[in-house]
Structures are given as C-alpha cells and as structure tokens.
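Researcher: Last one for today. Full complex below.
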Amino acid sequence: MGEGTREAQYKDRFGLGTPSDTYGTQCSKSEPLERLQIGDYLVEINGCGYTLKKGGQTLGTYKEATLLSPDRALFKLEKGMLLEVSPKGIRNILSLTKAGIIGFISSDGSLQYSTTLKRYQIEFGSSSDELLEKFSEFMKEVYGISLRAYPKKDRRHFIDLVKGSKEIAQDLDNYTTKAKGEWNVPFEYLDKESATMFLKCFMSGDGGIGIYQSSDHYRKLPLRIRFYSTNRKGLEEIATLLRQYFDIDSTINREEEEFTLNVATRAGKIKYIKEIGSFKERHIRAIERALKVIEQLD
Amino acid sequence: MLSGCGRNCNDCRLFHTYCPGCITRICLIAKCKRGISHIGITDPKSFCRLREYCTSPDVVPADYMIQAMPKLKAQTKVKFPRFVPVISLTDKRSWFWDELPLPWIVVRLADLVKNNALMQRVSSCGLHDFLGFDGKILLSTVMEDELLDELTPNDYLKMVGAIRPDATMTPDSYTYLDDPLCLSWQQTLKQAAFSCAFSELEIPVVGLIKGAIGKQIAWSTEKAIESGCESFALPSRELVKLGLFDGILSAIMSVFRKRRKDAQLLLYGLSYPLRRGGTFAYSGFSWFIGAKKGYYHKGKHSFFPTDTYVRFEECHCAACHGRMPTQLKDNLRSFALHNLLQTVERFR
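Model: Here's the assembly. Have a good evening.
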C-alpha cells in the first residue's frame, strides 16, 4: 500500500487523521504513565493520549478514550465511530449518537446516496418537536452541521429536517442499507449501549408505547409496545436484536399494508420500558403511567 | 535549500541529482511545525509516528546505498489479458474459474501474511492445488504498511518458494505524498534493495513501481528496468482518486521511451479502463467488494439493485439467467459473478 497521502490512508483504515490545531504545543516524548493489557492488546496511556499495540506493533494512536477497563476499551474515532478493543479482537462500532441518527433515519427519515444520479441527501421528518431537536443535536455532535427545517404545507406542524451532503450520505451509507431501499439493523457495528440507542430512536419514529384500557388485561399489564414497518426483514432483525441484547421475546404480525412487531411477555415489556424506552413525549408519559401501574400490581 | 521541516537539503546526497528537494507544503512534518497536526499521525505529539524524521540530522539513512541492480534469472515478458481479477484466498465466494475461463488471476500475499494457518495450508500443496485453478497466478505483494515493516527479503523468497505462483511482483513499499521526502526516498531505496533478492527466483518478476513524486517514480522504473523486469505494475487506485495518475504515468512512459522499452503496465487496483490500447492491463477486486456492499454493475456504472434504472431489467448473463437485480440480492456468489462478467466486458 502507501500511495496517495498518509492522511487519506489513516482516514480510510483507522478513522483517524483529522487536522487539529497544535500551534505552540511543545513536542516532547514521554514514557507511558500506565499500561493496560486487554487480551493480546496493550494500551499505553500517556498524559495526552493512548497508543494501542499488539505484539510490539503499533496499531493506532488515539486522543480520547470513552471507556477503559481490563475487559474492554473504547477509543474515539472520527464521525461518531468508536474503536472497541476487547480480548476477542478489535472492531469499529457506532457511538450512541451515530446509532441514534441511524435509528431515526431507519424509522422516519430517508437517505439518498446515488453516484449515478448524484443525489446525496439526509432527511428526517416529524411532527414531534422533541424528536426534531434530538436529531438535530445528534447531527451537530457527529458531523458538526446544522440542518435546514422545511415545514410541510399539507400536514399540520410537520417539519422536514434536510441536509444535502455527499460526505455525510456516503458515511451513513456504510452502516445502513436505507439508501438501497430498505433499512436494516447494523448488527456488526452495535454493542449493547448503541443497540439501546438504535431501538430507542427507531421506537420514537416508527413505534408505539401505549396503555390500553381493557379491564381484562388491566390486572396483567395494560401496556402495548410495538414497532411498525413495511419491511418485514428489518422487523425480524429488530426481534433478533431485542432477543440478543435484552432477552426480550416478540412476535411479528401482518396488519393491512404493514407489519407490526409486538413485545410479547410482561417481563419483556417491563424490561423494554426500563432499559430502552423512547424519546417521544407521548411514549414517555405512557411509560411513566405504566411504571406506576407496575408498582401497584407488585 | 531549507525544506519545510527545517532540514537542509544541501546535506543530502540525493539532492539535485535525483531529488528536487522538499518542495511540498502538505508534508505532515512541515504542517506540524506550522501548528497543524493530524490525529493519530502527528498528534498527540508524544506518540508522533514521524518523530524520527523530524529530529534526526540524517537526510537519507546511509545504509541504503544506491547499488547496481543484479539481473533477474527469469527475464520473461508476461502477457496479461486486459483485465486480471484479484481474488481473496480467504473467501471462496470470489473463486469463479469453473464458471468463467480466467487465464490469469491475482492473489494477495497479504492474505497469507495475516493468516499463519492459511499460509501453512497453502505451503503444503502450492497455490494451484489449494485453489484448484490451472490458469496462471500472479502474486501481489501490495500490503498494509505495518506488515511491510516486518518482512525481510528472505521472508519474501521463502514464501514465494513455498506457495509457488507463476509470477510475482517485486516487494511493495509506502511512499506517501505528505510524508517528508526523505522517508519516501528511504522506502523507494529499500524497495530497490529488497528487489535485488528476487533475482534468484526462477519465475517471471513484475516490477512494482513506487514513488511519491515524479523523480522517485522515474528512479523506481529505471531500477526495475535495470534489473531486467519485462513487465511492470503500478498501484493506481489512490493516484486516480487524487487526480495524480496522469503525471505519474507520464513519468513512467518517458522512462520507457528513453530506454526504448515496449512493456505492458498493469494498473493495479483499477477495474475500469482509463486508456485505450494494449499497453495497459488492469487488475482489481472492486467487482467482489462492490457485490458485498450491494452494488450491481451494469456497463460502466454501478447501481443499487433497487434503483429504477435496473430494478425491473432482466439480465441474461451466465450468472443471472434472466433474473432481475433484486432477485440476486441474497445470493452473493451470483451477484459477484455478474459484476465480474460486466467488468470483463468493459475491457472488450
């Protein structure tokens, strides 16, 4: 390898290489203050960063770590990505905010990435202010950009947040198949925390958490937790995600034009509202009411 | 002449004769001195990868002498077809010689260097038996920088001897545009020194041309010709991406003209034709990488299978048999074969 620029090579391979202002910083070499062994990997901690080594070979140098323990370390990469180091190996995973962006786009958003048509656009539309704010906040944090808001004339208080950017669309296209037609769950880039955020954001857009008043069910738990989509394969992947990380069982049914994933058991529903939840006001109120009911029932 | 990093080029024996001096303002060390560092490379400063080139008074290490290249044992000209597919030794889904006549394929040495168990399996029976392929195999030495740093000329010879390809490239090196020129010179000289060991091989050797600037490229080409290489390869993907390909190509072609060399140049890492005529052969893996990412090749373009341009179009190639792109979505092997057939067709 090694043609082109080192900067581009580091960006491609390690998600590093962003320029930073170090004017006036002294150039000093210091011995590592601390060393941490994670399986075959060695993390050398210095006053201003971390070096990751394997078998004496330097794999990368990182400025920030978001988690550092003998079992697992997370290093901050560019564009909302993290490098996870564990005894099993290393892999890139989505940060909470980036998992949130993909969750929102998979539910009520859209992603256009076409090199032939030269269309590069990210869009998220909602009538809930709290979701619009959350999406803007996540985009600002990951890509450092502000989004333009377009109110939809034919729908009351419905706002579309839009950004046209080839770089961002290309980056997101690496982690979701939304631009190709149907959304998916980016399993290989998720850990438990980012899976939680993905589900939470997807639920906020295309989900429902509600208390129903049927007296028969009231004594059990009058709570309904559902995800809606026309993409059955995607819902099956959500069911796998719920089972894999949270041990929550669910069922998928067809309802007219779309499919519905229902969280099946009482224990599953309680686990969902306690561990995952939603950003949507209406859902949050339902969760609060449900928690009170659970307290009374217990 | 004082370079951007503060080093005096007049102290260097390569200056004037071979090298124009550090003239690039994108050099990472020169940028660091101006207060712009790059995370993971020159920042944090205590971990800086380029520190030794920043503080050392040497310009080019003295142990890399420019020596006369020994002549290759096998000075055979390799005639590549217009497109030579790269395959993965670790993924059988990229093996298509039963479906498609392939006179040549490229396998990557990096696949074997990274996987000891695979190396042992391939060494025990040779590449042809391992793959079940009776065409010709070119061994690509292009690999990641950290792997290159670990290998010695003897390692290359041992591996080539054990796996028995039909032709091999000379060793790779890393020559980045934004590295200080003394580092890219060091790598170019190292590559030439390592290539000397390949003179012992009985199989054809393809000269891998490397360099960050025109003068390094020309020097590398000269050395490959001097050693008796009759075929040449140029890793081109990044050069095309950065718009540097034409300049680099003209440096190579002018050396060919000067030395009256009528050689074929393999543009490694490109799967679409840039130039007409038989002077260039192409080699790439994007037909398979594209299939894995869900890109469907049609003519010169690639589409998502759900794109309205191709969505309802039946393809009658040997992979699709009248199926539509969306019907191939879950069958990576057919998808990849379709892309390979389209890529081969581009070069007809």
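The longest helix of chain B spans residues 181-197. Chain B touches chain A through 56 residues (CB under 8 Å).
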